[in-house]
Design a protein that fits this description.
- This protein is an all-alpha fold and 630 residues long.
- Helix content is 72%, strand content 1%.
- A two-stranded antiparallel sheet has the order 1-2.
- Helix 2 runs parallel beside helix 4, helix 11 runs antiparallel to helix 12 and helix 12 packs antiparallel against helix 13.
- The protein is elongated, with a radius of gyration of 45 Å.
- About 6% of the residues have low confidence.
Length: 630
């Protein structure tokens, strides 16, 4: 049977009856496989050698038939049914035979393409890259007309043509760009990338979708064998090395954009603001991030690798530039920049304009801080995993955070400066000669008036930044209360009636300060526990000091014990201040201080009479206070 099959196969081959040869070939090869262990038998070996030669001759004959049928000038095959049958025979031969035939055919198809788009022809440059892709589309149409009936569908000849086309085109474009790099510009590069990516998308939609549909009907192993190469970045990957042209262009654009923002702010001044409304953002901040978004979308389409990292560095550079050129110079405390825009003949208007500008900078910094974090997350999301870890805006977010802190400090300093004259007025009152307690003092009314005018305005301005308004109130309390207590110490001597008046004033201020976050608001909001604690502890200390001034001092020991119990304070300097307020003479103060040291168990090494030590103690307290405030 085997001998007859080989002879018949030889006859069919000679007469090119491939339709009959294909199934017979499969049977003969199947039977011969079972005789493999008997090749030492001469007859079997001769038959095997005869079959091997027949298969080689068959492969060469089929290749010759294809070459003969192929028109050298038209680059297409004549439609011969025998060629389709020949493909069935090729399927039964060694895989190398089919691979060689496919490679030959693909090369013949691309020969015209290589000839049309030679290196030095103008049609080969990037501005005409869409013509390359149009050529392949025409090639597919010709294939469908002339060759689709010849090659089996499972050979996926169009996919293999497309795959080799992409490889050839990528090499061509790489060489072109290397030789003509000086001619590259952003417009040309974007045109080429966009046209190329659109073409790659079409290839993916056609071939990868076809593969998906076929693999759904086949087992996984068979589907993997037929899986096409991905066309993602198959050609466009060659542009990655030249994306620095795009990055450098965006760097220049952003430099010009920030310079434009600076000019617009100088010419336009403070953004339009209506009393009672939240502080507006600097319009340039949103414009900047809109530009960033556009750049990110564009760049992520070009690359998800190093180019995104490089773009991130450009973004960082101009966030710093925006911070340095616009945000910081916009603060009224700066001697140069935009502060001069805020000057007005009316000092009250100047002060309010400054508050508005500080709040605008604060809100803009908050927006930049939050949006920068979102920007970082978005870039990491788009970047390949290996590059995502290189993307960070921590330094820039810290800049914006520090600017917010600076704004809060300036708002506190502004309100402190309004209250300063009233605090100074405390020292002009002769507290030792008051003969009766009346309504709250003028200085208290003045402080309350400034708080009532400023706090609601700042609350409205920071309506969309509520947490920073709360922080502002807390910082002011931490700043104002120690100053107020220090002013009380300076009111010396103080009579009992004077102390009662100061106590009344202190209670009034304490009530106002506790209501500070909702002062002047139709809706009473309960302040945070930390704010309430800060105000209560600070103002209670002021009240205790005044109660000590009112306390009898006939018994020195009783007075000392009252001081320690009420204030829980072993600071000799503060104790001496209370004694000065009560009007003790110097000699009496020394006696009381010695008793205080003994009662409070303070070592004798502390020389309370030494003024330098007292000044040092005050400096240390001031340093602690500053650290606590900020």
């Amino acid at each position: 049977m085997l001998v007859g099959g080989v002879d018949t196969l030889a006859t069919l081959t000679k007469h090119r009856k491939y339709d009959e040869a294909a199934p017979l070939l499969q049977g003969v090869m199947y039977v011969m496989h079972h005789f493999t262990p008997y090749h030492q038998i001469p007859q079997i070996k001769d038959l095997s050698d005869k079959l091997d030669k027949l298969l080689r001759d068959l492969a060469a004959q089929i290749r010759g038939d294809f070459e003969e049928a192929h028109s050298l000038y038209e680059c297409k095959l004549n439609c011969q049914p025998s060629l389709a049958d020949a493909c069935l025979v090729v399927d039964a031969l060694q895989p190398r035979v089919k691979e060689d035939l496919i490679n030959w055919f693909v090369d013949r198809q691309l020969a015209e393409y290589k000839s049309l788009f030679r290196e030095y022809d103008e049609v080969s440059w990037l501005d005409k890259c869409d013509r390359r892709y149009a050529w392949l589309k025409r090639c597919f149409l010709e294939y469908e007309e002339d060759c689709a009936r010849i090659f089996p569908d499972q050979w996926n000849m169009p996919g293999k043509i497309a795959n080799d086309f992409c490889k050839v085109t990528r090499k061509m474009l790489e060489k072109q760009m290397k030789n003509r790099v000086s001619e590259l510009d952003v417009k040309l590069l974007l045109f080429a990338v966009q046209k190329t990516q659109a073409f790659e998308k079409l290839l993916m939609e056609r071939f990868e979708q076809e593969h998906h549909n076929e693999s759904a009907e086949e087992d996984e192993t068979e589907a993997e064998k037929k899986a096409p190469a991905s066309f993602h970045n198959a050609i466009s990957g060659c542009f990655e090395l030249y994306l620095n042209v795009y990055i450098d262009s965006q760097d220049v654009n952003l430099t010009e954009l920030v310079e434009k923002f600076v000019v617009e702010l100088k010419e336009g001044g403070v953004p339009t603001y209506q009393v009672g409304e939240p502080a507006p953002l600097l319009p340039s901040s949103s414009d900047l991030f809109v530009f960033y978004k556009k750049c990110l979308v564009q760049c992520s389409q070009l690359s998800q690798g190093q180019a995104l990292v490089d773009l991130t560095e450009v973004f960082r550079k101009h966030l710093q530039n925006y911070h340095t050129s616009l945000l910081m110079p916009s603060l009224p405390s700066k001697s140069s920049g935009f502060a001069s825009l805020l000057k007005d003949k009316d000092n009250n208007k100047v002060a309010m304009s400054e508050v508005v500008m500080i709040c605008i900078v604060l809100c803009t910094s908050e927006y930049c801080l939050e949006t920068t974090q979102q920007l970082e997350d978005k870039i990491k999301e788009k970047a390949q995993e290996a590059y995502a870890e290189k993307i960070s805006f921590n330094s820039e977010m810290e800049l914006f955070s520090n600017t917010i802190t600076t704004c809060l400090q300036e708002l506190v300093a502004h309100l402190d400066s309004l209250c300063e004259p009233a605090l100074s007025a405390m020292l002009k009152v002769n507290w030792s000669t008051l003969d009766s307690v009346g309504d709250q003092s003028a200085y208290t009314t003045s402080i309350t008036s400034h708080l009532a005018a400023t706090i609601p305005a700042v609350r409205d301005l920071l309506h969309n930044s509520r947490k920073y308004f709360t922080n502002y109130c807390l910082k002011f309390a931490n700043s104002f209360i120690p100053k107020y207590v220090n002013q009380i110490y300076k009111c010396k001597p103080v009579s009992t009636v004077g102390a009662e008046q100061l106590l009344l004033d202190t209670h009034s201020l304490k009530t106002v300060l506790l209501q500070l976050p909702s002062l002047g608001s139709a809706v009473a909001r309960k302040p945070t526990p930390s704010f309430t604690k800060t105000v209560s502890q600070g103002m209670v200390r002021a009240e205790m000091i005044l109660k000590l001034v009112m306390a009898p001092s006939e018994s020195q020991l009783a007075f000392v014990e009252s001081y320690i119990n009420l204030l829980s304070d072993k600071d000799i300097g503060d104790f001496q201040k209370v004694l000065e307020m009560k009007g003790f003479k110097r000699s009496e103060q020394m006696e009381m201080i010695e008793l205080f040291k003994k009662t409070a168990n303070i070592p004798d090494s502390e020389d309370v009479g030494n003024v330098a030590d007292q000044d040092s103690s005050r400096i240390r307290k001031l340093e602690k206070l500053i650290k606590k405030q900020f």
